[in-house]
Design goal:
It is a single chain. By secondary structure, the protein is an alpha/beta fold. The protein folds into two domains: 1-30 and 108-198, P-loop containing nucleotide triphosphate hydrolases (Rossmann fold), CATH 3.40.50; 41-102, no CATH class. 53% of the residues lie in helices and 14% in strands. Strands 2-5-1-6-7 form a five-stranded parallel β-sheet, sandwiched between helices. Strand 3 (60-61) and strand 4 form a beta hairpin. It is globular and about 50 Å long. The mean pLDDT is 90.
Length: 198
């Protein structure tokens, strides 16, 4: 049985990955958004709520995971973070398997994986597409987010593989440091190339 070509879409914070993922989706390419799946499983009535509460008492409520309460328990505690990831990653893996089964007849699908280089998963994708923009554009976008500070931004960057390294390891790079229309044209051209098996 043919299986779709799996595109691993990644990029550092503020690079425009969500925008590019939406462009793939608008062009008819199914997108698996790992972060959105996690949010769903941690939201009200989410399937991971009971397990997270059992492992991290007081971290959930009627609205699902209380991000700040959970963050306080795992932030700066590698063992606690590993316990949390051991709950989340297998659940996401199951969702991804179901997604692939559902779209088995498609020529390609996108796995939107923010931490593809940092947390692993390269073996699960056929082609790596990195979304990138100039550092000043990235900084401006991230610092415009509610609640973001220079300190938080620097901390997030310190946890991510540098953009230059991601670009060097990518099969393709999408530049979002230009107009949305130009980025859209670049995505459309890439989809055409990938459909031709390049």
């Amino acid at each position: 049985m043919n299986k779709p070509r799996i595109i691993g879409l990644t990029g550092s914070i503020g690079m425009g990955k969500s925008t590019v993922a939406a462009m793939f989706e608008a062009a008819g390419v199914p997108v698996f958004d790992a972060d959105a799946e996690v949010r769903g499983m941690q939201g009200p009535e989410g399937e991971l709520i009971d397990a997270i509460e059992a492992a991290f008492p007081g971290s959930t409520g009627s609205e699902g995971v209380k991000r700040e309460a959970l963050g306080a328990q795992v932030f700066a505690d590698k063992a606690a973070l590993a316990r949390l990831e051991a709950l989340i990653h297998p659940a996401v893996g199951k969702k991804r398997k179901a997604f692939l089964f559902e779209h088995a007849d498609k020529p390609m699908v996108v796995f939107d994986i923010p931490l593809l280089f940092e947390k692993g998963g390269l073996e699960a994708v056929d082609t790596v597409v990195v979304v990138s923009a100039p550092a000043d554009a990235q900084r401006e976008r991230v610092l415009a987010r509610p609640g973001m500070t220079e300190q938080k931004f620097e901390h997030i960057l310190s946890l991510q593989v540098p953009d230059a390294e991601k670009r060097a390891r990518a099969d393709y790079v999408i530049d979002t440091g230009r107009s949305l229309a130009e980025t859209g044209e670049e995505v459309a051209a890439l989809i055409a190339r990938l459909e031709q098996g390049q």
